[in-house]
Specification:
It contains three helices and six strands. By secondary structure, the chain is an alpha+beta fold. It has one domain: Immunoglobulin-like (Sandwich). The strands form two sheets. A four-stranded antiparallel β-sheet has the order 1-6-3-4. Strands 2-5 form a two-stranded antiparallel sheet. Strand 3 and strand 4 form a beta hairpin. Helix 1 packs parallel to helix 2. The longest helix is centred in the middle third of the chain and has 14 residues. Keywords: Disulfide bond, Glycosidase, Hydrolase, Signal. This is Alpha-galactosidase.
């Protein structure tokens, strides 16, 4: 699953309205992965559909994906996701079904092979 995400990243510039990259198939429910790995797989698959651009309304999608075998704190800064450094956003955690405010960066503690997926909406 990780290698498919890495391969898809190489083709991101070809994705756009009316076309997207096809990283093969979803393996969710086929066995062989943990719940965290399935969640990461599904999140990365969804992200691949918008890999090359923003969502409507100036929103951004962000996945903090822990590829390591231990708990890790992952941080991304607004400059990495195309937001002004001083922007305040509402971050919607798509897996936890909760929202919170953030400014300048987004940081989360992520379990091994798991991910956190957010929609960032500028205020």
């Amino acid at each position: 699953m990780t290698s498919r995400a890495d391969q898809n990243d190489r083709w991101a510039s070809y994705a756009g309205p009316g076309g997207w990259n096809d990283p093969d198939m979803l393996e969710v429910g086929n066995g062989g992965m943990s719940e965290a790995e399935y969640r990461s797989h599904f999140s990365i698959w969804a992200l691949a559909k918008v890999w090359a651009g923003p969502l409507s309304g100036n929103r951004k999608v962000v996945v903090l994906w822990n590829r390591q075998g231990h708990q890790a704190t992952i941080t991304t800064h607004w400059s990495k996701v195309g937001l002004p450094v001083s922007a305040a956003v509402t971050a919607r955690d798509l897996w936890a079904h909760s929202s919170f405010s953030a400014q300048g960066q987004l940081s989360a503690s992520v379990a091994p092979h798991d991910c956190k997926m957010y929609i960032l909406t500028p205020k």
